Structures are given as structure tokens and as C-alpha cells.
Amino acid sequence: MINTSMQFIHGVVITLLLLSFSSLAKRAEFQLTLNNHLFYPAEIEIPENTKVKLIIHNQDDTPEEFDSFDLNREKVIFPQKKAVIFIGPLLPGRYEFFGEFNPNSAQGTIIVVPNKLAPDRTESDTNAKKFPSNNTAMKEVSYVN
Amino acid sequence: MLINTIILFFRDALPIFVITTILISLLHQQGIKQRWYVIAAFASVLLSLLLLTTIDDISRTLDDTGREWLYAFCYIVCYFLSLILLGQLVVVNTQTRRQRCFRNRAVAMALMAILMTLNGANFLIYLTGFWYQNNASNVLTTGVVLGVGICASIAVLLYFFMAFFQRYCRIVREILLIFFSAGLLMKASNLLIQIDVLPSDNFLWDSNHVIAENAEVGQLLTAFFGYDATPTMLQLWLYLSAIMLAFFVLFRANPTKLNQRKTVSKEAV
To answer: CA neighbours within 13 Å on the CB side: how many for B203?
Structure first.
């Protein structure tokens, strides 16, 4: 029984290693900032059928948990720290997310747009625009309670 | 904040109450006293506090994916602990019974301690983060008390549900343990997909409009069966494989379980 389990564990580890080669690929990066329990920008556009890297900066003094049932993602972001998650590939549409510790205020949407409409995001572009406030590809929408 | 505290407590504590009830029921059936649970609970409180103090540093390791790696690894370990438990649950009067009971107790303790540590640390992050915010301590305490009440009620109902259904299905506890542990693998796969270790295809379906994951029923199903409203093909394959493997282990280890199960004496082991 234990031998069978060990063989299965070896199989799982090897499978994980093989599957994890996908992580070597460079992903387009998008930045999100949490300030005063609000996400900035509240809406982010990403291209369809593409996996992207989302970096979330928590500028508050309290922890927050990025949560999205639409995206199937959940990640704790500690105060004054950042967190990284990968999302996609997704079909065009709107995918809501929220801060689980402050769900009434911390809300936002990932908008997946068809590739022709999506911003052409290269790595240098990403680095140049570390924070999204000047990014034309992202819309900052004021939170209305 | 009160409602949010209850929801978060419910999310983190319900799986603990569910697995506790299943394991206590399973081991009680073998005549094992519940001392193991006290030890596991005490250990997990200490480990939760330790994890709480180090989770920030852990999170920043491996390119900010350390927490996912840790949690996914622990969930996978929990699945295999469940398999070990399922493989040794045969309750016949053999000479190795005492040894098996000892091993079962150790495995159950490890399973409980890991899950309670992970979920406990999760909730403590929220609790400690907001405790000093605008005199929130009273609200948080009230939320925790209400959450404990709800979870305890569900646990009691589950205990009697298992006792009742044992007349019709003798392995109802084992089935619940299998689905629960397969749910842990689903959680692990979600975490590994989130950090781009496992590939993520488009979702197979979105059943949020039927049973929303964030609704009460959705949370119950998530705690019991690892319900996921938006699974990928890989996750579905993993979930079904995990269930089939667990059933295979259960029936291979106990081929005549349904016919030959004999309850051991109630003497303390």
C-alpha cells in the first residue's frame, strides 16, 4: 500500500515538473494597486485567450485578500507588500474581483477584450509603466459606493 | 464587518469541523479514544501562530509564490494521508489491529494538525490585521462566536447524518473522507494554476449561476466535496482520478469490507 502510494507520489512530482515548463514562458504583466481599501484601476483590460501576470500592490496598513469567483483566484496580500497571480486564458467578458476582507469597497473588474482590441503589451512597455496610473490600456474608474 | 467575519470564519473553519467530525467518527468506530484530537488541536494552535509570524516571509520566497507552494504541498500531503487512512481502516480482529490503530491515530493527528494549521493561519491573518482597527475587537469576537455556533451545528448534524446513513451505506464515512480529500487536491491544483505551475485552459463550464461558489450552499459543497464552479479539464481529470484512486485503495485494502466488517470492542486502545 505504502509502495503504491510512493509510486503515485513520484508520478505526481514528475507530472508537476513536466507541466511546470509552461511557467518558463514570459507573461505580459499588469499592475493593480490597493489603496484605502480600493483597487486602482478598478477595471483592467487584458487580451483574450492569453495568460497574464497580475501584480497587486497593497499600500494599506491592513492585509487584504484578492478574491474572484469568476477567475477562481484567491491570494492574501500583506500590508505594504505585493502579490503575484496569473490569470487566463479567458474568453471575452467581464470578470469581477474583490477584496475579501473589505468586500464593500475593494471591488474591480477584469475585462477580457478580443485580441484586435487588446493593448500590445511588451516587457519593456510593462517595465516603463510600473504603475498603471499613466497606462492608457487601463481605465481608472472611481469607486462609487 | 460582522457579516464578513462570519463568512470568513465559516470559509476557513467549516472544513476543519467537517474533517474533525468525519475522523472522530471513523476512529471512534475502531475504538480509538479522542485524545488524539486534543493533541492535534493543541499542536495546530501553536503551528498556526508560528505560520502566522512567518507567512509573510514565506509568501515572498520563490518569486512571491512561496505561500501557494506551501499550501499546495500540504494539501497534497493531506490527500495521501487520507489514502493511508483509507487503506488501513479495515476493522477485523487481527494481531496487527493495535499497530494499525496506532498508525491510524498518528495519520489522523497529522491530517488534522496540517489542515487546522493552514486554515487557522488564514483566519488569524484577518483577525490580527483588523483587531486594532476602529475598536473592531468586539465585532470580531462576536463574529467568531457566531461562526463557531454555525459550524458546530453543521458538525453535529453531520455526525448524526453519518450515524443514520450507516444503516444503508456502511462506508458513508469513508465516502465523505474520499470526497473531502479529493477536494483538497482541487484546492492544491487551483493554487498551482494560480502561480502558473500547472497549465490553465479555458474553464470547462461556469456553474456559478446554478450554485454560486460564494453562496451558503456553494461554500458547503466546497467544504464537503471541493466544489468548483469553474473547473478546467486538468482539474476535472485530477478530481476524478483522485476519487477513483481513493476508492481503489479502500476496496483493495479491505476487499470484503462490506461483508466482514466487525466492530472492535469499545475498550480503550
So the answer is: 20
Range of A37's domain? 28-140
Is position A127 within any domain? yes
Does a structural domain hold residue A20? no
Q: At which residue does the C-alpha cell 466535496 appear?
A: B225
Q: Quick check: A89 and B200 CB within 8 A?
A: yes
Q: What is the DSSP string of B160-174?
A: HHHHHHTTT-TTHHH
Return the CATH number at A60: 2.60.40.420
Sequence letter at residue A143: Y
Q: Write the pLDDT tens digit of every residue in A88-139.
A: 888 899 999 999 888 889 999 999 998 766 555 544 344 334 434 334 334 3
The answer, for A96 touching chain B at a CB cutoff of 8 Å, is: no
Burial B131-155, CB ≥16 within 10 A → b, else e? eeeeebeebbeebbebbeebbeebb
A104 lies in some domain: yes
Per-residue pLDDT tens digits for A34-80: 999 999 999 999 999 899 999 999 999 999 999 998 888 999 999 99
d(CA B22, CA B37) in angstroms, rounded, equals 12
Task: Say what the ipTM of the complex is.
Answer: 0.80
| pTM, full prediction | 0.82
Q: What span, in angstroms and rounded, lies between the C-alpha atoms of B177 and B88?
A: 13
* 3-class DSSP assignment, residue B13: helix
Q: What are the grid coordinates assigned to A58, written together?
A: 497593497
Beta-carbon separation of A103 and B4 below 8 A: yes
Asked, for residue A12, whether it belongs to a domain, the answer is no
Domain count, chain A: 1
> A13, A112 in Cβ contact below 8 A?
no
- A83 at the B interface (CB within 8 A)? yes
Which residues, including other chains, have CB under 8 Å from residue A78's CB and lie 6 or more apart? Answer: A58, A63, B56, B59
* Cα A30 to Cα A52: distance, rounded to the nearest angstrom: 7
Is the CB of B194 inside 8 Å of chain A's CB atoms? Answer: yes
Which chain A residue has its CA at the smallest distance from B209's CA? A70
Across the interface, do A70 and B208 touch by the CB < 8 Å criterion? yes
